[in-house]
Amino acid sequence: SFKESASAKKTPSVQLYSEFIRKAVGTVNSSSSQLKSSSTSSSSSTTLLECNYLSTPMHEWREDMVQQWVRASSISFAAEVFSKNEVDGSVLREIRREDLETLGIVGFDATRVVGKRNSVLLKEEGQKQNEQ
């Protein structure tokens, strides 16, 4: 059959890669299950597969949520700098343009990061006012 002939033609590197992917998926699924079973609050818990920064106040964002936001906000140039400096939501909330420049994000790029951060904070403030 086609399936048998295709698998027979796999090179060792493809077979190793396939094995690696199966193991990685199993690890993620296992970690996800453990996180779900150990969570105490379903509204604030997130798993490796559910990193939704949009439904979480910025000051509660973990580093992976900041990374998700950076990529979704078209400021991916900041991803490596934020990762190296372990920027989470509480740090991002307080970071200033001068701080970004110290980290190597300068000029218009620093302005863009602060502007996008401020947009999130304004949105959060609007949601708070609507809840009151």
Global Rg? 20 Å
Helix content: 55-70%
How many strands? Answer: 0
Low-confidence stretches: 1-12, 27-50
In terms of DSSP E residues, the strand content is under 5%
Describe the biggest sheet? Answer: none
What's the average pLDDT? 76
Class based on secondary structure composition and strand pairing: mainly alpha
Distance between the termini: 66 Å
Order of helices and strands: HHHHHHH
Number of helices: 7
In one word, what is the shape? globular
Summarize the structure.
It is built from 7 helices and no strands. With 132 residues, it is mainly alpha-helical. Helix 6 packs across helix 7.
Mind explaining what this structure looks like?
With 132 residues, this protein is mainly alpha-helical. It is 67% helix and 0% strand. The protein has 7 helices and no strands. It has helices at 2-8, 12-38, 63-72, 79-84, 89-94, 97-103, 107-131. The radius of gyration is 20 Å and the shape is globular. The N and C termini lie far apart (66 Å). Mean pLDDT is 76; it is low at 1-12 and 27-50.
